């Protein structure tokens, strides 16, 4: 699903959160937004989702202006938001149930996603029986179940430790490669952004402006060895310089 953000600004009372942001997401691309806390990353995500309206500018999804909450998209938040009384497989199928679909028709796909995410054997487990990383993998499977053309992710690994979130990145890459949905991914991690993305967007401190758009030309699939490749280090440094330069101005 293509997304076209044109000259978008958003104010909350007297606070300008996002200022004159323009960005185009190609269909099937993985785009990450990085920047300091409070720079408007999550605000931009919610604007694309149609959960809030821009103060100025326009957002089109597949050529249609966003006027309200979008349907047929997937969303993943920092917290897994799993229903504690439902088993893992049933939590993943919940999105089909809420859409009025027969869960039996989506059961096989849910099981396939669980296998890809490393959750095979935990179909009957309750959320409290899963680690934090496993819960988040389940929430990503749920978001991808219905093959939505657009998935919005707001710091989905932010509450995890460094080792777990690195593993989550590889799991997400596997799941995304299967679906090839368009993904807009918010993160504070430069490593995470460069490893996962086709494009990394660097935002300034509030008011959030787009300072740099960095194409990531690393071959896929990416693996732990990618982190040591010279090109990965070069791209990470460019993103880092874009963030650090803001504090020098």
Number of domains: 2
Lateral strand order in the biggest sheet? 6-7-8-3-9-10
Query: Low-confidence runs (pLDDT<50, min 5 residues)?
Result: none
What percentage of residues falls in helices of 4 or more residues? 25-40%
Instruction: Give the name of the CATH architecture of the largest domain.
Output: 3-Layer(aba) Sandwich
Structural class: alpha/beta
Determine and state the CATH class of the largest domain: Alpha Beta
Distance between the termini: 36 Å
Write a structural description.
This protein has 249 residues and is an alpha/beta fold. It has 2 domains: 169 residues, P-loop containing nucleotide triphosphate hydrolases (Rossmann fold, 3-Layer(aba) Sandwich); 65 residues, no CATH class. α2 runs parallel beside α4. 40% of the residues are buried.
Summarize the structure.
The chain has 249 residues and is of the alpha/beta class.
Topology, element by element:
Layout (H helix, E strand, L loop, with lengths): L2 E10 L2 E11 L4 E5 L6 H9 L6 E6 L2 E2 L7 E4 L11 H11 L8 H10 L15 H13 L5 E5 L7 H18 L2 E5 L3 H7 L2 E5 L6 E6 L14 H19 L1
Parallel strand pairs: 3-8, 3-9, 6-7, 7-8
Antiparallel strand pairs: 1-2, 1-4, 4-5, 9-10
Helix pairs in contact: 2-4, 4-5, 6-7
From the structure above, extract its key features.
249 residues, alpha/beta, Rossmann fold, six-stranded mixed sheet, four-stranded antiparallel sheet, 24% strand, ATP binding, ABC_transporter_ATP-bind, ABC transporter ATP-binding protein
């Amino acid at each position: 699903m293509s997304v076209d953000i044109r000259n978008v600004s958003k104010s909350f009372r007297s606070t300008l959160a996002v200022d004159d942001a323009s960005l185009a997401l190609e269909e099937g691309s993985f785009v990450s937004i990085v920047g300091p806390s409070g720079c408007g990353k999550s605000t931009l995500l919610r604007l694309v989702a149609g959960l809030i309206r821009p103060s100025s500018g326009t957002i089109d999804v597949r050529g249609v202006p966003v006027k309200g909450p979008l349907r047929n998209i997937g969303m993943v938040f920092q917290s897994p938001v799993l229903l504690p009384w439902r088993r893992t497989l049933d939590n993943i199928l919940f999105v089909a149930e809420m859409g009025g679909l027969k869960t039996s028709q989506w059961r096989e796909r849910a099981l396939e996603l669980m296998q890809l995410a490393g959750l095979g054997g935990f179909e009957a487990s309750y959320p409290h029986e899963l680690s934090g990383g496993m819960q988040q993998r389940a929430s990503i499977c749920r978001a991808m179940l219905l093959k939505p053309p657009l998935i919005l992710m707001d710091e989905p690994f932010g509450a995890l430790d460094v080792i777990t979130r690195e593993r989550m990145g590889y799991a997400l890459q596997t799941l995304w490669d299967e679906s090839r949905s368009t993904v807009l991914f918010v993160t504070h991690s430069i490593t995470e952004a460069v490893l996962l993305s086709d494009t990394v967007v660097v935002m300034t401190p509030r008011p959030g402006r787009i300072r740099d758009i960095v194409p990531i030309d690393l071959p896929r699939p990416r693996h732990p060895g990618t982190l040591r490749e010279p090109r990965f280090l070069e791209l990470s440094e460019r993103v880092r310089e874009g963030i650090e330069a803001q504090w020098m101005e």
